[in-house]
Every structure is written in structure tokens, then in C-alpha cells.
Amino acid sequence: MNNKFITFEGVEGCGKSTQIELLADFLQSKNCATVTTREPGGTAISDHIREILLSPEHDNMDPITELLLYGAARRQHVVEFVQPNLAANKIVLCDRYVDSTRAYQGAARKIAPNILNQLLEIPTGGLMPKLTLVFDCPAKLGLERAHKRNLAEKREDRFDNEALEFHCAVQEGFLNLAAKEPERVKVIDASKDMQ
Ligand code: TYD
User: Fold this and answer.
1) How far, in Å, is the centroid of ligand 1 from the Cα of 31?
2) CA–CA distance, 106 with 111 (Å, rounded to integer)
3) Pocket residues: Cβ below 6 A from ligand 1
4) pLDDT tens digit at each of 195 positions of the chain
5) SS3 state of residue 156
6) Extended beta strands in 78-138, E state
7) Contact, 173 vs 103, CB < 8 A?
8) Ligand 1 centroid to 47 CA: how many Å?
């Protein structure tokens, strides 16, 4: 566990990316060296893998292939970006990390725990955040927000095309993780719009 590593999690459209930017601005205003990053992504190699993962054309992707690709993108990100920044004593704020894998590939895709756990351990080498904030909003509301954002930004991703039941399983997955690890995982009500 690293005291300066904080992750942000939640269903599509929960607003976590906005909250990361707000926290990063606040910390920088207090002269705390802070970097923000996201998964899948954060390095050139991981960004290439992100494109494969999110392309709506890849609607036939096997769940274990998906899990392996998230793991590959994460390994490169941890080694090339997260660890060096933590070693330089910076605060690392990361948009999604292992809890997304637990919620999406575990709770929603229902990959067996023995396979899932290996693919959580190998890429991270056990590196876990000190604090994880789950931005909780009903899956239906989050999806509506995500669809609006996608229309405005003219983008589409494979997960936004999943059925509502899939996203409900993801939301429940995050809440179960918070119930299991209350010290690390804190739930924040994200159902209201930003004022
Ligand atoms: P992104 O556009 O970053 O979604 P958001 O803006 O909602 O964070 O796309 C990342 C997608 O990848 C998102 O649908 C969640 C999914 N994901 C997984 O399924 N497993 C994972 O381990 C991670 C990191 C993300």
C-alpha cells in the first residue's frame, strides 16, 4: 500500500474525472506535487491497448482476452508512470485501477475469482492505493450522462453499449468492494449534478 496513491472509481458517467481534476487543482494550490492519470492509459503503450479495449468494433472480445489486455495496459502504467512518480514522492491520483477490474470483469463479466486474482496481482506486483473513492450513482443515471457526453464529444465506447443490467452489476460490484474493505474504499454520493 502506498500512502500517496489514491484511486477514483465508479460506473460510467459518475463524474469521477471532474472530481479528480478538482482535487488535483486543490492539492497543487497547497504546493503538494500531484500527478493525475487514468486506466486504461497513462503511457503510450497503454493508450494503444486502450484503443483496442474500447473500440465498439470489437464487440466479439472474449472476457479473458479483455482481462489480459487490462492487465497488460496496467503493468506498463504501473512500471512506467505510477511507481516512478510515487518514488519521486508525488501524489498520484488515478482514474480507475484494480477495483474497476473487480467490478467490470469480476462482478459483471463473472470471471472466476482464481483467474481474476492472478490477473490483479501480476500487473501490480501488489501495489495498492491507500484510499479509493467510489463515486456512486444509479447505473441508469450514469449511463444517461455518459451517452450525453459521448454525443457532445462525438465518441463511442464498447462499454456504453452494454445492457443496463451489466452496469447495475458493476455498481453493485463497487458497493460490495466498499463493504468488504471499508478502511480503504469510501463511497461518495454522486447522484446529484455539480452545483
Ligand atoms: P473510460 O472512457 O475511461 O470510462 P470512464 O470515463 O467512465 O472512466 O473507459 C474506460 C472503460 O474501461 C470503462 O468502461 C471501464 C472499463 N474498465 C474495465 O472494464 N476494467 C478495468 O480494469 C478498467 C481500468 C476499466
Assistant:
1) 30
2) 5
3) 12, 17, 38-40, 54, 70, 95-96, 100-101, 104-105, 157, 159
4) 679 999 999 999 999 999 999 999 999 999 999 999 999 999 999 999 999 999 999 999 999 999 999 999 999 999 999 999 999 999 999 999 999 999 999 999 999 999 999 999 999 999 999 999 999 999 999 999 998 988 898 888 899 889 999 999 999 999 999 999 999 999 999 998 765
5) coil
6) 91-95, 129-136
7) yes
8) 12
How is residue 148 written as a grid cell? 450525453
**What are the backbone angles phi and psi of residue 11, rounded to the nearest 5°?**
-70, 170
The single-letter code of the amino acid at 19 is: Q
- Which residue of 69, 97, 159 sits with most ligand 1 atoms within 8 Å of its CB, as the best mutation to test the pocket? 159
The set of cell numbers assigned to 60 is 466479439
Quick one: residue 46, left, alpha or beta (phi over 0 = left, psi -120 to 50 = alpha)? Answer: alpha
Locus of grid cell 503510450? 44
What one-character DSSP code corresponds to residue 194? Answer: P
Cα angle value 141/17/152 (rounded, 5°): 65
Residue whose CA lies nearest to ligand 1 atom number 8? 12
